[in-house]
Design a protein that fits this description.
Helix content: 25-40%
CATH superfamily: HUPs
CATH architecture: 3-Layer(aba) Sandwich
Number of helices: 5
Oligomer: single chain
Number of strands: 7
Distance between the termini: 37 Å
Bound molecules: adenosine monophosphate
CATH topology: Rossmann fold
Length: 147
Amino acid sequence: MNIYQHILLAIDFSEDIQFLIERANKMAVQNDAKLSIVHVLDNIPMPDTSYGTIIALDDETDNVLLEQEKNKFSQIGTQLNVPENQRWLIWGSAKEEICALAEQENVDLIMVGSHGRHGLALLFGSTANNVLHHAPCDVLAVRLKNE
Ligand code: AMP
């Protein structure tokens, strides 16, 4: 019997993310599991204006960074053959939204990357660490090697 039925892969766009993507793909195939992907937009685009800074919250904005993130996310979804309704692009805080989505979608395994931080970064806590402590299900942290 397969252990996991629904895997949620949490994606950021760090350079080493491809390794995590391949691991998640294999895990989904081996378990014959449904695979969903999530990227949390946690950096709100803030265009500068002559009268200060406005926070652009609607996704009609032509913010170049936002469009790039959407494109990269879409490419990963296509690469993994993830249907559109299992691709989640969400505004908010990564650690909270990933766990809330896992609960909502009856996910039984969340996969995140781990950079094996030390020192101050360890003290402040990584996304992987936060997800691990608040997830409603199993969490697999895949060690990513920073070149
Ligand atoms: P971090 O500790 O923040 O460098 O991230 C570790 C892992 O958390 C990444 O490899 C992703 O799996 C996940 N992650 C980080 N940021 C996000 C995000 N904004 N949206 C979805 N997953 C994320």
